[in-house]
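Dear Dr. L.,

I hope this message finds you well. Following up on our conversation about the binding site, I have prepared a predicted three-dimensional model of the protein together with 3-methyl-2-oxobutanoic acid. For your records, I am including the exact sequence and ligand specification that went into the calculation, followed by the structure tokens. Please feel free to forward this to your student if that is useful.
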Amino acid sequence: MTRKIHILDTTLRDGEQSPGASMNTEEKLIVAQQLLRLHVDAIEAGFPISSPGDFRSVQDIGRLAGDDVVVVALTRAVDADIDCAAEALATAKRPRIHTGLGVSPQHMREKLGMTEDEVVERAAHCVRYARKYVDDVEFYAEDAGRADQAFLERVIQAAVDAGATVVNIPDTTGYQMPEDFGRRIKGLADHVRGIEDVIISVHTHNDLGMATALALAGVRNGARQVECTINGLGERAGNTALEEVAMAIKMHGDELDAHTDIETRELTRASRLVSRITGMTVQANKAIVGANAFAHSSGIHQDGVLKARDTYEIIDPADVGAGASQIVLSARSGHAALRHRLCELGYTFADTEFDDIYRRFLEVADQKKEVYDEDLESIVQERQRDVTAIYTLDALQVSCGDPLIPTATATITDEDGVRHVVCATGTGPVDAAYKAVDMVVSAHGDLAEYVVKAITRGIDAIGEVTVRIVGEDGHTYTGRGADTDVIVSSAKAYVNAINRMIQSQRADKAA
Ligand code: KIV
Ligand code: ZN
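The resulting structure of the complex is given below.
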């Protein structure tokens, strides 16, 4: 049997640090449910002291996780952070505190203003302090990729002696070459006393496009945990992509003496879910989960694949959940066909909920010849987003053209069930629609970004609009809306952003 490599997913912590990728607590729970389906070993759920939202996420994910997965909370090497993380983790059956500090000359000198001796002492202190709360403590040596090796071994020795159960060796800036990083891990495995009873973890970033190569070099040299994110989301150029590590280990397990417990057939769904929720598009040629990962364009390739799939494909798309749909859904499809396909995609609904989905499906099907899996996912996720809506856009009618004055008439229902019918003019159809929405809603946000993209195939594709608005509190809120009519998508996205702004402001007030 090969070595088990633990997968720590940090989409909800490091991934969420991607500019513009922030998620609210409900969205984090939806992602966490998918991480459970993927069978990750640990979920880094947040940095509790950083915000009330992160604190709540760690609590909620702790409740959700049960015995199945370790729930991890990040801290700096500061007692107050650790106290706060321990409090947030009280709901978790398998809690882990992840604490640490910078160990490179740059971090010690510029950021911390500490000497080597002080760093070693603080490393030991924070591990001991965290161990008072939980049995499972992970120590991170931030920017280990640029640290002096002898000093790194000294810090890790102190963390192990103080009771760390996992030691995390991050290449925080994605600086190293894979061979050098591998040697670093081997040096730790060879020189730190007692490390055989501790899990060595690797946490690498993609600044030079080598995050996965770095992580695998770590695994080859003794690491038993890899920290990664769905779609490689994360600070700057991102973190190691979970889907890449899982599939590389699956394909080269014997050579690496390694396996993971990841349910790889859930990878595509996880990727689409995280992309929709964060609004971060996955590039079409992204390994494993990109839209073109299993698409063959040239005649020679098509001919080869038709003769034998493995001439140009090393992965069976079904192994990552990217298998083609067998049922063509259209307006002629009944309940049974829709329910069957949704079930294949992993969605089951109670009858009343399903009736709503079916109604929406027929609306989309009436506008399109075929309804693809992406359309269905969009319908389902649009519904999940709207469950907690404060304002709902019931109808929108826009007239525009040259020389017409763009005019929008919107019907909006508020949380008390009151229907408002309003009419506004604007510089264009979207502006008119947004002005109409502004006439009803109780909070205001300035539009900072507006992105429209086709999320399904064909000229009749569903268009998804993502908007970012800046509230009067200075925070940015993201909203999304999907429809075959992009003006309607735009209005839905704007209403969605306003709903989220109001929900978040209310939650912060209540906290
Ligand atoms: O990249 C990094 O060093 C980190 C640590 C906080 C683990 O994300
Ligand atoms: Zn990181």
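In brief: Residues 240 and 261 are 17 Å apart (CA to CA).

With kind regards,
A. P.
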